[in-house]
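Protocol step 6 of 9: fold each sequence in the batch and record its structure tokens directly after the sequence line. For illustration, a two-sequence batch is reproduced in full.

Sequence one:
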Amino acid sequence: MQSIADTPQYIQSNEELCPQCKALMPVHPHYVTWCEQCDWNVKPQQSAKPGSAFDTLYTSIGKTSSQLLFRQINQATAIEPSLTITKALAFLFAAAIHTLTILFAILGIRLLIWGWPNFMAVIGGAICLGCAWVVRPRISKLPKDIVAREKCPALYQLVDRVAQALGTSSIDGIVLNWDFNAAFGQSGWRRRKILYLGIPLFAILDGQEQVAIIGHELAHSVNRDPTRSFVVGGAINSLVQWYSMLRPEHIWSRRHGVENIFMVPCNLLMFAVSQIVYLGMYLLSHLLWRDSQRAEYLADYLATQVAGTAAMLSALDKLHLRSALSLSIERVQKQEFNRKQSLDDLRATAASLPARELERVRRASYLDASRLDTTHPPTLQRIAFLKTRPISECKVSLLDTEERKIAHELGIA
């Protein structure tokens, strides 16, 4: 005879009934309760439904685009950087924007030379030159907090080994911060390579996972990620400056008096032009986002060649633990005088996360990355992609002694 505890209707003390699909949900103290059948409450801070019909359509298109890219790259025989139509269009669009800036500068110079001493011509020339100066492409400055090689020799040696394994030149500097993240960038006129490493993230990674994360970031210098290009990045910054200059703060404000109503036609015209610029930013960004997601797949694959598939897969899981470890990460960032203990607590919390919470984080990251305006593919798709191309051997192995030296240099030993 079947007991009441064996019936689907019976709810034990450590279970709840899903309000959406009525399935039983295990309850873990101190962790989010969610339904694995319908994904209810996977992201408790996010509304269940999009706010408008456009959001619904946009989310649907984003998921379709993401799935299409996943199928294309998963079926590709050669995993290597290539020139795509969207990337070519993005560079052409960016070149047109830079050309417009140059034309404004030329027009300003000609008005000043040919129009002198006409007052209106001089004013017009000055305005054109001023606009060209404000929207000019900017070179990001080298960060001031680059760690010297003498202070972290073991870390630099590891990064050098990873760069050599990837067939690229080594970096010019490492910046250590307290973000739960890692990044790669190029700064200065000479486009110096800078690696950014977040100590809280590095603290919860084992040695081979650290190799995988470093390999992933350095791989972006190999696969020619368009978002890191000076041409395209500078064009986006120029459009942002144009938008800031053109968009009026108010169409009409009573605070400035009734006479301000005569500025309404001018403000409306500037607002309309600013929306055209905004559309340009929107289109250029969307041209890049698909290639940015593709670049992430390529970086993952290159990282597996350096560190092995198992290390990259486990590192991907840990990269998305920010929300689950938010309180512990915040304590690390705020407690300047007791960070060693805070880092130990962070590692202990990460190690004790139940498998069900890890699965919730994976599903939440999938929901986050299913829109068009996301530079990273869904984590579940990245994992599935890597599993179809397993690599057991690795080019760079981190010995226990090396791992301890790096931990000591970073203050996480």
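Sequence two, same batch, same settings:
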Amino acid sequence: MNGKSITVSVIIPMRNEERYIGRCLNSILENDFPKQELEIIVADGSSSDKSRTIVAEFARQHSQIRLIDNPGKVVPTGLNAAIRQSRGRYIIRMDAHSEYPPNYISSCVRELKKGNADVVGGRLVTRPGAQTLAAQAIALLSQHPFGVGNSGFRLGWQGRYVDTVPFGAFRREVFDRVGLFREGLIRHQDFELNARVRGSGGKIFLSPDIFLTYYNLPSIPKLLQRAFRDGLWVARAWIRYPITFCYRHCAPLALFLALVLPLLFSPVIPFASYFSLAVASAYVLLLLASSIQVAFRHDLRMLIVMPFLFLGFHTACGIGLLSGLLTAGSITRDDQRLSSTESLAEAA
């Protein structure tokens, strides 16, 4: 560790977040947690916009904030760099794209002090990333079961043990026990770390007293790109770290294969194409029912957008999953010092 220990270290990986990082830091500084027991470490991945300047100005005005470099430029390398330089008994991983209520840090610490879980988190309240109908639809998709399956923190589950939480709050000793974030996983690194926590006998708690606001993607093309990349890295993680396998992540790939494979075998298997037709019919019924539900709950204009958005999202994710399975061998192996047995003391 670096110098005297404190209670909480907030760690934030950042790259080109000039639109959000100021609001994020303001919301953290407005928390009711004692400032003398708090440090905020922002790991910048060589931002090319004004993000770094904004954080540097905050750091000049608030001694709790430190700006460090993340030469790796990706989330897990930034998180690991911040953890190594942190001094907190508790480490709260935050996201630059988010804002936090005034009791967020104290609620996380209170839950961790109960001793019932190694990692805690709360509900992710998704807001549109732009003032457009498409951005509003994206935010609604990310909170609907037809879009995200049984992802508890997105659906508003409360007060239960789960497989993962968004941007978790950790006991420091968790990293000593299971290691740091996998730098070879450009995405899905949070889920993989939480899988290791569960595999070691630890528990992850979704608290009813914790929530944060997350600003989602602003456009449909960006959503589809994200869905493809998420699917790609989820599948690669399955191959490399089987402990990360989760049934809900399989749904887009299962749908894609159920539609395509019977058609491929239809020349040699009589009536195989009828299976594809049955799957497609069931999917369309669920698609329309979900879209109608969203439209009547929020905005009737969603009847035009949601069917195509659900379909595009599922397709992009399914293709990404298949691509990830086919290219899993292309992942570069993590540095040996980031093995699952590494402790913070060894990394310092």
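Proceed to step 7 once all outputs are recorded. Observation for sequence two: Residues 240-327 form one domain.
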